[in-house]
Each structure stands twice: as structure tokens, then as C-alpha cells.
Amino acid sequence: MADFLQLLVAGLATGGIYALAAIGFVLLWQTSQTINFAQGEFVMVPAFFVLAAMKLGGVSFPAAMLIGLVVSLLVLGLLFKRLVVDPVLRHGVLPLVISTIALAIFLKEAVKEFYAADAQPFPAAWATTNLAIGSAVVSAQNLVIIAVAVVAVGLLQYFLNATRTGRRMQATAQNPGLARILGIPVEHMILYTFLINAALVALASFLVSPIYLAKFTNGETLGLVAFVAAIVGGFNQVRGAIVGGLLLGVIDNFVAAYLSAQYRAAIPLFLLIVVILVRPQGLVGRAEERTV
Amino acid sequence: MKIPPRARVLAGAAAVALLVAAPFGLKPYGIYLLSLWAVMTIAAIGLNLTLGYAGQISLAQAAFVGIGAYTAALLTTQGWPLWAAFVLATALSFVIGWLLGYPALRVQHHYLAFVTLSFTTLVFLILRNEEWLTKGVYGITGIPRPNVLGWSTQMPVDFYFFCLGVLALVSAATWWLIRSPWGRAFTALRENPIRASSLGVDTRRYTLMAFAIGSALGGIAGVLYAPLVQFIEPTAFALGLSFSLLLMVIVGGAGYFLGPFLGAAVSVLLPEWLRFTEGLYLILYALFVMVLVAVCPSGLIGLAERLRRPAAIATPEPAPPDDGTGSS
Amino acid sequence: MAALLEVRSLAKSFGGISAVADVSFDVYEGEILGLIGPNGSGKSTLFNCILGQLAPSAGEVRVDGRPITGMRPCDLNRLGIGRTFQLLQVFPQLSVRENLILAGQEHQGSMWSRLAGPRDAGLAATANRMIEFFRLSAVAEERAGALSYGQQKLLDVAMAFMAGPRLVLLDEPAGGVNPTMLAGLRERLRAINATEKATFVIIEHNMEFVMSLSTRVLVLAEGRIIAEGAPEAIRGNRDVIEAYLGR
Q1: CA gap C24, C5 in Å, rounded
Q2: Which of C39, C43, C150 lies nearest to residue B325, judging by beta carbons?
Q3: I need a labelling partner for B124 at 20 to 30 A (CA). Which of B196, B249, C139, C186 fits?
Q4: Which residues pair with residue C58 across a beta bridge?
Q5: Least Cα separation, residue B181 to chain C (angstroms)
Q6: Quick one: how far is CA B185 from the chain centroid?
């Protein structure tokens, strides 16, 4: 039972991080038909913005986090949209897929070349002690991650559902043509989703890097998980990404512990194949209204 | 301005002559790169068939190269001749590729990309974990180079000509296939599957066939790859290779016959020419791909076509004067 | 005389909306049946149900007495049924000649016989005949995407006939074709009907075109047949006029 609780908490924590990566991925797809194959690298890079700020700028960790966030918004949000997505999107979805694959390579190699090839320690913004709950030993870090992820997702949901801008963004995602006719500044809404994605991946980066260290190869696994979480949960709903992310995090931990550590990555993939073939709209999603 | 046939033949002959003469002026590493280019071109030709001609996006090609490579490695290190590996790997890749085509009948585009992506990763996991068969992460060493009818291909130059020979055969077969009624059917499948179906094209069969043949070529490339590098391990056949091959096809020009040749050249040879930039060559390659895709998504050959006949794109008459809803 | 095509109580609903309801009619060999009706009356849906693009919610379709309801479009082609689409659908990358050969090559034989057989699938002569018949000789080797709209339309129609079909369903063949070409198109269709004994069912909005071509006319409104008869009779039919003008 103690093990179960530990695994569950750890699973939810990892799942929370996956969910953050997956939500942004889904938002980008919904509003602008962008499939960002570089999403994993997007989660890898912000940590390096922070490390660079500290190393080269000599700033303190909190200040560096802020700088890291701002730079992420700029580079992974604005620049990504203007320089990579906009020029290619008019050619179709496949060229954009190629572009983001190339971008992933670019980011990975740039970090490797210009920062470091080996794993870098990343400071945690909280205590790394363990708590005892009953007979279980639970890492405080995991609890903090869960808390942060919950707050972030909560804020996002509030923003999307209860604010005017948020609802306009949802309208844009559902039907951009109609949104335009209704006078919604669709281009701005799309830009906001890119910025939100940048913020989410930055947050995910800050949460995951203390545990797994910052390394240029982190993007590979994280990217795959983001895709799987998004699709399994439901590719056209933010809720789907959350469900998918949490589910995968928990499954991953339990499979590794009880079944096979070697094939832990296989379960999400099987799930992905089954979901796509049997229920493409995902576990939570609605049948896709927009055709590709 | 169309290129006259005679000029094309001369250009082709010149290219072949270059390919035959090239290894004699190069060091062993250079010859290895040329051989690698030939092998990757074969895999890219396969993917070009599935993606460029039949319009099915596949990120699974790396898995088939892996299947071919491991088949060759396992057989030849046990003393079996390479041609047996060719036969087995081709058959295996064809059948598995055919089965992989079934998801393509249900889903398209990005969903198909994800299904094939998962397939590649699953195959990689099997290659990595099933040590009893594949020796896992330790890999298989000492893969011998074949003896082709008494001619030993042990030396780099000899093995290069062997690769070139296989590439020539594959190219000829693919050329013939594309020019056959099947090639026409694949084009129809890619351009307009609904109209194609109403014209009697069995879109299901042709989709499966496109997957099967493309995958079989991936397997053949793998069988050549194993004796080329003489040591294989699973990470070479993971998702990265699938992405690499996809980029090769797109950069070269999807749906063009010469696309894979060009794309593989850019992907394999360009990094070496950019060696002087030290670690930057991958970064430069990535930037190049991003710019190319934004400027000309039909790849380098598409770009060349565009430069050759800039004004040849006829504008159709204005849209028919109906209500535009398409309902009756 | 037995009907070539029999449609019995065909119905199709999307969600709660009934697009086609209880439609029954026969098509006899050699005739040209016009299908007209105001927008939204279900004509294209009806076609799609007959031709396998959509599965009908109810009813049956028979050809030569054999049920073909829900058969795949490619199998229907092999039974000798062809169609054109409302939105022009030629293959722009292929030449005119290649388009025509493609249109005929899948009709007979198996995939394997096609692979082993000649490049043009034995259709060179037929393609030439079509090119001449539809007066496309000047552009036969051009990429189809480079043709004018009117020429592409002619190619589109020609493609439907490459497989020598007995029954062709034409979805707005006159759409977007300029008046000079229209007369030519009508004349070509009449000629094919006479020489090849091809039976047509034509959806059209262009009244003049469809009335002058058809031997018999059906009128569809809100998913049901409201009138049937010779073109002259339909012209004066009160129900038809009301359906078009709305109530």
C-alpha cells in the first residue's frame, strides 16, 4: 500500500509535467493546425535559458527563472510563430511537420554546441526532503510538482473559460472562419496560444529539470510523451491533454515498477495505436469536427 | 524551357561516370560515405514511393532498415550468404509493411504519422530489449562483407561498387514501376483518392501495396547497411533515422524520381563538406531545411523546376457561377 | 422493358436531418434522365448513395436486377457504372492522355495483370478516340492542370467514358462551362448516347441544357420526387414551379 501511494504520487507528478507539455501541444493544433514535433525540445530548452542567464549574466536563480520565462515567451512563442510557423503553414501540414522536425534538431544541436553536451544540474526551487504519510515515504518534490501543475492548469482553465480573451481563444480554436466574422482578432488569438504554449513548456522545464538534470537529449522522450498524452486523452480538447498526461505518468510508473522497466515505453505506444485506430478522438475528446 | 532529351541522357551518363570514378580519388572514409549515400538513397527511394508517389506519410522506414540490417547481421554471422538475407529481409519487410498499411486505411495524415512513429519506437524497443536475439545494446559485431560470385567485396572500393550495383537495380525497378499502370494508380491515390476510386482504382489495395513495397526497399537498404558498417546496434534504427529519411525525401523533392538521390546526398555528404564548421553542420542543415520548406515545399528538385519554367502555371478560369455550396 | 438501374425507397439522413426520403425510380437503357430540383433538394446526396460514396440509411439500388447498395465505388466502376463530380476532378500532374489511360486502366483485369502488361494498359487506341471525340487533340500531351476550365471539364467527362460504361451519372456537367463550349458538350453527350448506347442520369441546374438533352426528367424537392415526365410536361408543372420559387 505504501508503495502504491508512492508510485501514485510520483506518477501524478510526472503526469503533471506531461500534461503541461501536452496541453500546449493541443492548443497549437486546435487554433492553428500546427503539429509541433519540437515540443519535447521546447521543454528541454528553457532550463538552459535559465542556466545561461546565471552563468553568463551572473544573476540569481529567481531572477534567472524570470529571464528564462521571458526569453521562452519570446523565442518559443513569438519567434517560433513568426519565423517558423507562419511562412510554412500556408503550404500545408506536412511541410510544417518537416519544419518542426528540423527545428527540433536545431534546438538540440544548438544547446549541445553552445552550452554543454553533458547533463547539467538544475536547482530546485523547493526543498527536496521526503514526507512520511502513514507508512509511505513521499517526496516533497513530487507533491510540489503536483501542486504547481494543478495551479497552472487551474489558472489556464479559468483563463480559457471565464475571461473574455479566453473564450475568444476557444472560439478561434473551434471555428476560425466564424470567429473572424464575429470580429474576433484571430491572428492575436493564435499568437496568444503560442505564448501560452511557451509559458507551459517553460514551467514544465523548470519542474522536470531538477529531477532529470538538464541535458540536450531530454527532448526526445518528453516530445514523444507529449504527443501520446495529447492523442490518447483527446487531441481536440485541453481536458484531453490533462487526462492523457496524468494517465501516462501514472501508467509509466506502475508499469516500470510492477511489469517491466525495459518495455515501460511500449505501453503508451500501444495505447496510442489502439486509440488512434479505435477511437481517434481520444478517451475524452469529441469526434473531430475539423478535417485535416 | 524544357531540357531536350539528349541533354538529359548526357547529364545522366556524366553522373553515372562520376559515381563510378569517384572512389578512386578518395580515402577509405570518403568511399564509406559514398557507400552510405547509396544505401540511404535506397531507403529514401522506398519512402518516396510510399510518401511522395502514393501520398501516405510514414515514419516507419527506420524500423524496416533495422529489420533488414539485423536479418543480414544475424544470418551472415552464422555463415549464411548475403543473398539469403536479401530474400528473407525483403519478404519480411514486405509482409510487415503490408500489415502496417492497414492503419493507413483507417487514418491519414498526422494520425498516420503517429501510428508509424509508434511502430518505429516499438521495433526499436524490441531490438534493444530482446538480447537473446539481437544482443541488445551490445550490438552485433564482425558482420562480414559478401563474396559476389567469386568477387570479394571486403575492400571499401569493391563494397562501394556492390552498393552501387544494388542501387542501380533498385532504381531501374522503381523507374519501371512508376512508369507502369501502378505508378499512375499511385499518383491518382495521392492526388485525389475519391475520384480515383470512382474510376475503379482499388484504393485499399494500392495503399497497402505502396506501404509494402516502400518498406521492402527499406529492408533491402538495411541488408546493405549491416556489412557496410560491420557493427550494428539498436539506436541506429530509432526514430532519428525515420526523421532523417523523411527529411531526405522532402528536401530532395517528394514525388520526383531523382528526389531521394539528391536528398540523401544533402543529408549524408553535406555534413562532411561542412566539417570545417566543426559542430555546426547539423545546425546549418536544420536551418537549411527550415528555409527550404518555407520557400519551396517541393524540395530542391521542385525548386529547380520552378526556376526552369516560372510562368508555365496556367490560371484556371474563374470559379463556376453557381451558389458555391456544392449541394443540389 | 427491364430497367437498367432500379432505385427503391432510398433514404439518407444525417443526424436528424433527412436529405433523401423514400425515393424510387427506374432508369431504362439508352435514355437520358435529367434530375433537377432546387438547392438542397438532395440530388448530390442521391447520387452519392447510388454510387457508393455514402451508405444509404434505407432502401435499395439494383443494376440489372443485382443489388449494388453500399458497394465500393471502385467495384461499381467494374460493373460498368461511371460518374463525374460536381467539382472538377482531373489529375493536374498527369497529362491529358495519362488522365484518360488512368480512367480506363482499372476497369478490367487484376492488379498483377496490369503490372505485367503494357505501359498504356492497352488503352492507347481508346484514349486517342476520346481525345479526338472531345476535341482535345491540341492539348493531349499537356499537364491537365495547365488546361482551361472548359477543357478540363471536357477531359473530366471523357474520363468517365474511358471504361466504356453502360451507365454514367453526371453531376452538373455544365457547371462553369462557357456557352460556346456548352453546345459542343451537349452535342458530344448526345453522340455518345447514340453510338455507345450509354445511359445517362444528369443532375443539372442549367435548365436549358438539361431540358434540351434529357429524354425524361425527374424533379426532386426536399428529398422527395415531386414530378416526373417529359421535359415539356415538367416545364409547365405547377408543383415544380412552386418548389423552385418556394412557398
Answers
A1: 11
A2: C39
A3: B249
A4: C11
A5: 6
A6: 20
Most confident of A145-149, B37-41, C76-80, C150-154: B37-41
Smallest Cβ distance to B200: which of C41, C74, C90? Answer: C74
B95 in a domain, yes or no?
Answer: yes
Q: Which of B102, B110, B117 to mutate to test the interface with A (most CBs of A within 10 A)?
A: B110
Chain B contact for A102 (CB, 8 A cutoff)? yes
Q: How far apart are CA B184 and CA C99, in angstroms?
A: 9
Residues of B with Cβ-Cβ distance to A101 under 8 angstroms = 243, 246-247
Domain range for residue B147?
26-237
Of C91, C107, C175, Cβ closest to residue B187: C91
Q: What are the domain boundaries of chain A?
A: 21-215
Q: Is the pLDDT of residue A288 over 70?
A: no
3-state DSSP assignment of residue B123: helix
Query: What's the structural domain count of chain B?
Result: 1
The contacts of residue B271 (CB under 8 Å, 6+ apart) are B281, B282, B285
pLDDT digit string, tens, across residues C168-177 = 999 888 887 8
Rounded CA separation A176/A173 (Å): 6
One DSSP character per residue, B266-292 reads HHHHHHHHGGGGGGGHHHHHHHHHHHH
Which residue has 501542486 as its cell numbers?
A147
CB-side neighbour CA atoms (13 Å) of C17? 7
- Put simply, whether A117 touches B (Cβ < 8 Å) is no
Contact B195 C74 (CB under 8 A): no
Enumerate the residues of chain B whose CB falls inside 8 A of the CB of residue A113: 279-280, 283
Do the chains contact at C91 and B317, CB–CB below 8 Å? no
What grid cell was written down for A223? 516530445
DSSP string, A130-157: EEEETTEEEEHHHHHHHHHHHHHHHHHH
Nearest-angstrom CA–CA distance, B80 and C159: 52
Distance of residue A79 Cα from the nearest chain B Cα, in angstroms: 14
Enumerate chain B positions whose Cβ falls within 8 A of a Cβ in A.
57, 103, 106-111, 113-115, 117-119, 121-122, 125, 128-129, 239, 243, 246-247, 250, 279-280, 282-283, 285-287, 289-290, 293-294, 297
pLDDT digits (tens, 9 = 90+) for B176-203: 999 999 999 999 988 888 889 888 889 8
Q: pTM higher than 0.95, yes or no?
A: no
**CB neighbours of residue A53 within 10 Å:** 21
Chain-centroid distance of CA A105 in Å reads 18
In a domain, B203, yes or no: yes
Cell of A99: 519544419
pLDDT tens digits, A95-121? 888 999 999 999 999 998 888 888 888
Residues from chain A that touch B106, judged by Cβ atoms under 8 A, are: 277
- Residue C177 is classified by DSSP as -
The string of pLDDT tens digits covering residues C59-72 is 889 888 888 887 88
Dihedral sign for Cα C112, C117, C122, C123, please: positive
Angstrom distance (rounded) from CA C36 to CA C147: 29
Torsion of CA B48, B49, B52, B55, to 10 degrees: -140
CB contact under 8 A, A277 and B106: yes
| C-alpha to C-alpha distance for B83 and C3, rounded to whole angstroms | 60
Query: B328 vs C43: CB contact, 8 Å cut-off?
Result: yes
